[in-house]
Amino acid sequence: MLSVATSGWFQAGLLVFALAVTYRPLGDYMAHILTSTKHWRAEKGLYKLMGVDGDADQTWPVYIRSVLAISVVGVLLLYLILRIQDHLMLALGMPAMKADLAYNTASSFVTNTNWQNYSGESALGYTAQFAGLAVQNFISAAVGIAVVATLIRGFVRTRTDRVGNFWVDLTRLVLRLMLPFSIVFGIVLIASGVPQELSSHLTAVNEVTGGNQSLYTGATASQEAIKMLGTNGGGIFNANSSHPFENPNGFINWLQIYLLLCIGFSLPRTFGKMVGSHKHGYVLVAVMGGIWASSAGFITWAEEKHWGTAMAVAGSSMNGKEVRFGVPASSLFTASTTLTSTGAVDGMHDSYSALGGGTALFDMMLGEIAPGGTGSGLYGMLILAIVTVFVAGLMVGRTPEYLGKKIRPSEMKYASLYILATPSVALIGTGIAMATTTARNSMNNIGPHGFTEVLYAFTSMANNNGSAFAGINGNTDFYNTLGGMVMIFGRFLPMVFVLALAGSLAKQKHTPASVGTLKTHTPLFAGLLTGVIFIVVGLTYFPALALGPLAEGLTK
Amino acid sequence: MADGPRHTTRKARAPDLPTPSTYKEPEMADVLYVVLTVATFAVLALIVKGVERLER
Fold first, then answer.
1. pLDDT tens sequence across A74-99
2. Does A80 touch chain B if contact means CB atoms closer than 8 Å?
3. What's the mean per-residue pLDDT of chain B?
4. Confidence of residue A197 (pLDDT cuts 50, 70, 90)
5. How many folded domains does chain B comprise?
6. Has residue A447 been placed in a domain?
7. pLDDT of A50-82, one tens digit each?
8. Is residue B11 part of a domain?
9. Is residue A34 situated within a structural domain?
10. Is B48 close to A208, i.e. CB distance below 8 A?
């Protein structure tokens, strides 16, 4: 029998190995999806239905307007489904969702956040889960990859104002990537013990104590696959991946972590293949991997070694952990879910030590770039790479270039606006909540911990993570309404600047590298990029962190 | 048959499900949230237009 620590190391090692094995084939396959000139017959049929010319590319404003159009329709349609779910089939007797909660949930799933102010098993029937939430799980994940594809094309293309066709990218990513992978992994989950049934009944179980309980089992496996693969994170059950139906054993726990990381960690290969330099892909994946490993290691250390009487007696902090998997596997899950835009949880982040929970919060504050959400992680990392090249260019006094494109004032404007967008949304949301009596009344703790709960909530929503620190009652008119707006702005505002940057880069001609060009495929650049990530992004939140987890962690 | 939880199914509404809330929805709540959604995306569309101007 392996000790918990050995098991943790084994799981982490196996995860790195599996991700390394997947890196090349999955990355190359995604590059093929985004560059292929051939359309599948089913895709042609869908283009015809949508009235789209599959061979005509769009300018960046048309592309982002297409993203906004499908998203506003998605929010309104999902809102409608949730509001009338009591009239839909397979509703399991669930009542219609109240208006503010339906708005929050619709905004949440369309933006890939999957913040949940409801309990899935007691609020949603099958139709709302399938026709509503699951559809958005597929679309929102594909939208992120589509947007990063435009940025990559911006580096590849020259003297053009065309960055791709959103409807083609979206259709291909759903049909060729998300659907087949979800089906395969859904079957693996079913074979490993995750329930999958679609009856209109609830399962009645005779309890050991002699009582009787009706359980929601549902089509959990099929939902679980896209929940993790698309870095969505919305659980079928309130306890999310702590629930034994969603996460029945150690293998599934490991597989879930792998699924939420595999696309994010393979996208740098896609980038390298599309720009014609695999070395650049290796640099980005090395930076992502370094931050991810550091975060997982630090959270594990904080939970194993943090001060406290109970922790000292027990040997580690089991409070808030998934007791079946122990501290290392729970910490690995926590780091992975907060460094991507997943937000699924297999433990209670609110009950982690101040430094462990604070690290989960800091992971999101970094912009979820290691490896980040599907697509959104890579475009965040590429923007930071541009900032790094610019900073390095300032040091030596020459016009910075990245992958043959000059980083001029216009590109820096878009990069700066991108970096400011998410923290602004998160911190303004937190500020409004802390200044509002009604919102403060939702806090279940006072002092630094109470503040951290609110800060975590808005950071999670603005970064489209969706994990909850818990501790605050989020299902109020205030949090549902403000949270819905925060998620929409947190998702689409940065996308506007990414698309504008892509358009600006695509218009440029290719600038050949010279002796003075900063080499961006070296370990030195990887180190510089890591430094910029921590200084530029991390420090934006430092005052807020000082008031929350740092103050709590440093107070005995 | 070994002792343990026995699984059966039934059609009836589960007794431990929450009963419908007594919460009273504000009037015009749907209109408010539909308008809010459209307005939020309209602001984003305006920002796109503003960035386009910045480009020129």
1. 999 999 999 999 999 988 889 999 99
2. no
3. 72
4. confident
5. 1
6. yes
7. 999 999 999 999 999 999 999 999 999 999 999
8. no
9. no
10. no
Closest Cα in chain A, distance from residue B29 (Å): 6
Global ipTM: 0.94
Chain A positions in Cβ-Cβ contact with residue B35 (cut-off 8 Å): none
pLDDT at A481: 97
C-alpha distances (whole Å) from A252 to each of A32, A323, A339 are 29, 15, 20
Minimal C-alpha gap between A197 and chain B (Å): 12
Q: Is residue B50 part of a domain?
A: yes
Q: What is the rounded CA–CA span in Å between residue A361 and residue A460? A: 8
Is A100 part of the contact surface with chain B (CB cutoff 8 Å)? Answer: yes
Residue A263 lies in a domain: no
Could B33 and A489 be called an inter-chain contact, meaning their C-beta atoms sit closer than 8 Å?
A: no
What's the pLDDT tens digit per position in A204-222? 777 777 787 777 788 899 9
| Nearest Cα residue in chain B from A417 | B51
How crowded is residue A441: how many other Cβ atoms within 10 Å of its Cβ? 11
Q: For residue B32, what are the domain limits?
A: 27-56
Report how far residue A21's alpha carbon sits from residue A80's, in angstroms, rounded to the nearest whole number. Answer: 43
Scan residues 473-492 of A and list those with Cβ closer than 8 Å to B: 481, 484-485, 488-489, 492
pLDDT of residue A318: 78
In DSSP terms, which residues pair with B10 in a beta bridge?
A202
pTM, rounded to two decimals? 0.93
Task: Round the CA-based radius of gyration of chain B to a whole number and report it.
Answer: 25
Cβ atoms within 10 Å, residue A523:
9
- Evaluate whether residue A404 is within a structural domain: yes
* Cα A92 to Cα A196, A227, B4, B12, distances in angstroms: 16, 22, 26, 9
Is residue B16 included in any domain, yes or no? Answer: no
Contact A76 B37 (CB under 8 A): yes
Kindly indicate the confidence band of residue B1, based on its pLDDT and cuts at 50, 70 and 90. Answer: very low
How close is the nearest chain A Cα to the Cα of B40, in Å? Answer: 7
- pLDDT tens-digit series, residues A315-367: 677 777 878 888 899 999 999 999 999 999 998 888 888 889 999 999 999 99
What's the gap in Å between the CA of B52 and the closest CA on chain A?
Answer: 7
- Angstrom distance (rounded) from CA A385 to CA A398: 17
Q: Are A404 and A510 in contact (CB under 8 A)?
A: yes
Q: Which burial class, exposed, middle or buried, applies to A16 when counting CB atoms under 10 A from its CB (0-12, 13-18, 19+)?
A: middle
Number of domains in chain A: 1
Task: Report CB contact under 8 Å: A65, B32.
Answer: no
A99 touches chain B (CB under 8 A): yes
